[in-house]
Amino acid sequence: MKKIILSGLLVGLVNFIVAMAISKIFGVIFPALNAEYQNTNLFRPWTDPLMLLFFVYPFVLGIILAWFWKKTKNLYGEDLRGGINFGLTYWIVATIPGMFITYSSMPYSLLMVISWLVQGLVEAVLAGIIFSK
User: Fold this and answer.
1) Are the C-beta atoms of 1 and 121 separated by less than 8 Å?
2) pTM higher than 0.90
């Protein structure tokens, strides 16, 4: 259990840093995304105390993925390739359908959804690599 929590927290930290970096990169390349993030019709304002949960999300996800890796690593193999395949599988099963329904039912731009798809791919693959180490 200790290994699940520690590796999950490490993945959470890495994913948090990656999310901030990718968001910044997309914001520089596509400044309209920054305005979309500031739209309080789409997102809670940063002054809302519930927004603190935004910073907890990658750590919760990291711990859940660490648990799932422990249960499925024999299917993927515990080497680097297995970790990458684990991350890709998670991304395909969870992120792509999630972003499909997000785009089809919420007023987010296609560019924002694509940025989240890219971010999710990088995060999922890095998580798998970390778990395989």
Assistant:
1) no
2) yes
